[in-house]
Amino acid sequence: VQLQASGGGLVQAGGSLRLSCAASGRTFSNYFMAWFRQAPGKEREFVASINLSGGGGSYADSVTGRFTISRDNAKNTVYLQMNSLKLEDTAVYYCAARHITVNEYGYWGQGILVTVSS
């Protein structure tokens, strides 16, 4: 499956952004989807994931209550709505896909930069 992320950019602290990740090439509804991020000088970290139907999401503690992951299987797209952004949310964000039959995320988008300014 190929993943193409969009929607990043520069935003002031307290603002909002929505990231999108469009998938192609396989049956989207057979893939768990997730967002990860990598801040400058830090390792990549998990942000949020969503199940096959979109009925449930899991979040890192640092974004719980501020970020919402969702998916539209008809559009083969996963979203990350980011509200109340903080300076520490500045990072390159990656969408990732994991097929239902495996335990690891094996497909990654190209990464998209989100910069939160004061």
Topology of this structure?
Layout: E1 2-6, E2 9-12, E3 17-24, E4 31-38, E5 45-50, E6 57-59, E7 67-72, E8 77-82, E9 91-99, E10 107-108, E11 112-117
Parallel strand pairs: 2-11
Antiparallel strand pairs: 1-3, 3-8, 4-5, 4-9, 5-6, 7-8, 9-10, 9-11
Describe the structure.
This protein has strands spanning 2-6, 9-12, 17-24, 31-38, 45-50, 57-59, 67-72, 77-82, 91-99, 107-108, 112-117. 0% of the residues lie in helices and 53% in strands. By secondary structure, it is an all-beta fold. It starts with a strand and ends with a strand. The radius of gyration is 13 Å and the shape is globular. The chain has no helices and eleven strands. Strands 2, 4, 5, 6, 9, 10 and 11 form a seven-stranded mixed β-sheet that branches. The chain has a four-stranded antiparallel β-sheet with strand order 1-3-8-7, with no helix packed on it.
What descriptors fit this protein?
118 residues; mainly beta; seven-stranded mixed beta sheet; four-stranded antiparallel beta sheet; 11 strands; 0% helix
Output mean pLDDT.
96
* Derived structural class: mainly beta
Helix content: under 10%
Spatial gap, N to C terminus: 37 Å
Radius of gyration from the alpha-carbon trace, in angstroms: 13 Å
Q: Which term fits the overall shape? A: globular
Low-confidence stretches: none
Task: State which percent range the strand residues make up.
Answer: over 45%
Beta-strand segment tally: 11
Helix and strand sequence = EEEEEEEEEEE
